[in-house]
Amino acid sequence: MRYNPDIQDHNNLQGVKTGMSFRRYVFPLAGAALACASVLLTGCGGSSADASSTAAAAGKTPISVKTSSPQDAATKTSIPDGAPQIDQKNLTFMPNKLTVKVGDTVYFLNSDSVIHTIDVSGKNISGNMKPGQVVTWQFPKAGQYKISCDYHPAMNATITVQ
Q1: In sequence order, what DSSP letters do the residues of 106-129 get, joined into one string?
Q2: Which letter does DSSP use for residue 71 in this model?
Q3: How confident is the model over 2-24, as pLDDT tens digits?
Q4: How confident is the model over 116-151, as pLDDT tens digits?
Q5: Residues near 111 by Cβ (< 8 Å), separated by ≥ 6?
Q6: E strands within the chain?
Q7: Alpha carbon distance 131, 76 (integer Å)
Q8: What pTM was computed for the model?
């Protein structure tokens, strides 16, 4: 190729008159696309607000809800031996039927590799539960409570409170 004094970019002799340089125009676009994708994926983690602060903000009396994150393994809520619990594993609640007394603390554990929620009779009490997290909840009065997951509608359990 011959030198052309009308082209400002002498490192790219094709310049803007005859075509675009692949590296000069495509790589920045690919970088911008990756940056947008990472922002979108980061936003999928959900809210960091717990159920009790959400209830308080809505003017409702929160029921005891405690969560533990896997990052806090040393201070993670441990489940006492014999305590009533429901585990989320293989996209099911195990056990799917549980009977407790009024005021008992029930432990909900996410042993799955995906995010779950704990809905008690249609109200989300856990927010997004990451793998390894534990949520506790005390049932205030006798009755039958349906337990479900927002993300996995086939996950269902029933807790009977006497």
Answers
A1: EEEEE-SSS-B--EETTEESSSSB
A2: G
A3: 655 555 555 555 544 545 555 55
A4: 999 999 999 999 999 999 999 999 899 999 999 999
A5: 87, 88, 89, 131, 132
A6: 65-68, 85-89, 92-94, 97-100, 105-110, 119-120, 123-124, 134-138, 143-148, 156-161
A7: 13
A8: 0.56
